[in-house]
């Protein structure tokens, strides 16, 4: 639960969200913080002036995310990091969590109204402190943004879970820690007070006593909140607009705001989005499990690198001590190189551990937050944030893609000391960079006499060099697209001959081959040019096949 805390904090004030509202970019912000970062826009760029000029902008264009960035940093000269293009820039402030935000454009007028009901300066613009998208507020001001009741509920549950242990409600002086709760009496008891005030006999014997934690959860459970429409406060949400991705009431439908949109039942969409989020979490959970196992592997690598380092140093010292005094002057240099390699390997692995730990903590926090959101019983509030959460879950899962959970460093020291030279060559003694026992295989040789084409197929044959002593575990054959484009793999395996079918007639293809083993891959062979036949009609009179090696 503690890893989810950053998900519950406002990017402006750095504290837990208070009365959070959902911006059209799907990010959240405190209602008071939203008012503090309002900025006035030029009169000529306001929605009213655009309507007066006949541009035909709708009152509900703020729902379109692309149309909201009229004053983004890229196209207007002002946004979340500066002032208007024609005016001096306003100094930026930095919130506790590092997000840069605007100070208020003007001191807010004295009012006794709540932040949502207080009048908003005309032509006000608000910039999201996270994605820096800007939009102009309409006449409704901040009331036009829906409240995130799901997030409020998650914060309440999180704060309650971190509260101190529940105390007995009947202790007169120093309350003791509660041990049970009576669901019928709705009272927490310690053991002495339970025996004295709630004996298990008579009518009280039928009461159900539960652990305090379970009782606290049952207390929090309340009837599902009924959400109301932001445009029609007296009407409840009953349907869901698929195009606008927002709950609507029947009066919105009667007014024709969503006449050409696909509208579905609120309950059905609630269940559908919950199912989608749950399925997305399953994949992310698997990635988190793999990441935990990967961290264990990296920590084991640190120990193994240290052990290998000690063993390697001991072997090196034993070899150096057997040589004459001239070798002792060289020994210090060799040990320095070993220590440098040791530190380099440890640094790479530790950096990867740190990076993977941070990413795993963020992933776990997102998972716990999503699980808490799934527990929410408010379908309207859930649907307001479910799309954004599903996208975040998929994006986070993609970040654990191929290569992320692969060690960047091996535990072996790919160095070997050659002590065979004569004594007079000791000053030229140096490390052999590659282990003699595991080099890469030699470059394969194409056997031109066995390579040929027939109609729209090509057969290629290759072999290892005669003097090669390093075995190859397999070969990779690559072919271009017949038009001089990029090469692509058409065969991977242990065989030394391959026939490629389905080529284009009357086309020239380039082919090349390379070998591989556990250590790595060899260099590419020479490129072979293959010419296919002219067409199907000439199959009975095949043309001479061109075959030449480059």
From TrEMBL:
Q: Which residues form the RING-type domain?
A: 10-50
Question: Could you name the Gene Ontology cellular component terms for this entry?
Answer: cytoskeleton
GO terms (molecular function) for this protein are: zinc ion binding
> What PROSITE patterns is this protein classified in?
COS (PS51262), FN3 (PS50853), ZF_BBOX (PS50119), ZF_RING_1 (PS00518), ZF_RING_2 (PS50089)
CDD domains, from UniProt? FN3
Q: Where is the B box-type domain?
A: 163-212, 224-266
> What compartments host this protein?
Cytoplasm, Cytoskeleton
Report keywords, A-Z.
Answer: Coiled coil, Cytoplasm, Cytoskeleton, Metal-binding, Repeat, Ubl conjugation pathway, Zinc, Zinc-finger
Can you tell me which residues the record assigns to a coiled coil? 288-344
Q: Which residues form the Fibronectin type-III domain?
A: 440-535
Q: Which InterPro entries match?
A: Bbox_C, COS_domain, E3_ligase_FN3/SPRY, FN3_dom, FN3_sf, Ig-like_fold, Znf-RING_euk, Znf_B-box
Q: Where is the COS domain?
A: 374-432
Question: Carries keyword Methyltransferase?
Answer: no
According to UniProt, the name of this protein is: Tripartite motif containing 9
């Amino acid at each position: 639960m503690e890893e989810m805390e950053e998900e519950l904090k406002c990017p402006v004030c750095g504290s837990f969200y208070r009365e959070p509202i959902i911006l059209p970019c799907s990010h959240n912000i405190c209602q008071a913080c939203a008012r503090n970062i309002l900025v006035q826009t030029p009169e000529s760029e306001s929605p009213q002036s655009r309507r007066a000029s006949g541009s035909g902008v709708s009152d509900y264009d703020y729902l379109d995310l692309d149309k909201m960035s009229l004053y983004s940093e890229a196209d207007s000269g002002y946004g979340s990091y500066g002032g208007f293009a024609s005016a001096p820039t306003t100094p930026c402030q930095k919130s506790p969590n590092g997000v840069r935000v605007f100070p208020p454009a003007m001191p807010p007028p004295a009012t006794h109204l709540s932040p949502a009901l207080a009048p908003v300066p005309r032509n006000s613009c608000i910039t999201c402190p996270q994605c820096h998208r800007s939009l102009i507020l309409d006449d409704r001001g901040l009331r036009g943004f829906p409240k995130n009741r799901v997030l409020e509920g998650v914060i309440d549950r999180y704060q309650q879970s971190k509260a101190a242990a529940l105390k007995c409600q009947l202790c007169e002086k120093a309350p003791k820690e509660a041990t049970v709760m009576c669901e019928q009496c709705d009272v927490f008891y310690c053991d002495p007070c339970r025996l004295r005030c709630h004996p298990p006999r008579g009518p009280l014997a039928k009461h159900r006593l539960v652990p305090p934690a379970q009782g606290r959860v049952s207390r929090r459970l309340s009837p599902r909140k009924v959400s109301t429409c932001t445009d029609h406060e007296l009407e409840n949400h009953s349907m869901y607009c698929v195009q606008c991705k927002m709950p609507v009431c029947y009066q919105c439908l009667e007014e024709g705001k969503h006449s050409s949109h696909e509208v579905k039942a609120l309950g059905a969409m609630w269940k559908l989005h919950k199912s989608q989020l749950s399925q997305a979490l399953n994949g992310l959970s698997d990635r988190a499990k793999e990441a935990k196992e990967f961290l264990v592997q990296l920590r084991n690598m640190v120990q193994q690198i240290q052990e290998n380092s000690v063993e390697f140093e001991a072997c090196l010292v034993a070899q150096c001590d057997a040589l004459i005094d001239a070798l002792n002057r060289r020994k210090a240099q060799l040990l320095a190189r070993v220590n440098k390699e040791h530190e380099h390997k440890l640094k790479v692995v530790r950096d990867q551990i740190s990076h993977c730990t941070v990413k795993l903590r963020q992933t776990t926090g997102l998972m716990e937050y999503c699980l808490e959101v799934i527990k929410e019983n408010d379908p309207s509030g859930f649907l307001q944030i479910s799309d954004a959460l599903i996208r975040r879950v998929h994006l986070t899962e993609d970040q654990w893609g191929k290569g992320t959970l692969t060690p960047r460093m091996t535990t072996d020291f790919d160095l070997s000391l050659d002590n065979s030279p004569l004594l007079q060559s000791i000053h030229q003694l140096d490390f052999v960079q590659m282990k003699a026992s595991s080099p890469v295989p030699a470059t394969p040789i194409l056997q031109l006499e066995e390579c040929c084409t027939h109609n729209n197929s090509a057969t290629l044959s290759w072999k290892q060099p005669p003097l090669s002593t390093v075995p190859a575990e397999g070969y990779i054959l690559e072919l271009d697209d017949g038009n001089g484009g990029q090469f692509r793999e058409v065969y991977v395996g242990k065989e030394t001959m391959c026939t490629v079918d389905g080529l284009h007639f009357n086309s020239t293809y380039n082919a090349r081959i390379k070998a591989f083993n556990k250590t790595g891959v060899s260099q590419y062979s020479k490129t072979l040019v293959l010419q296919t036949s002219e067409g199907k009609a000439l199959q009975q009179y095949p043309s001479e096949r061109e075959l030449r090696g480059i």
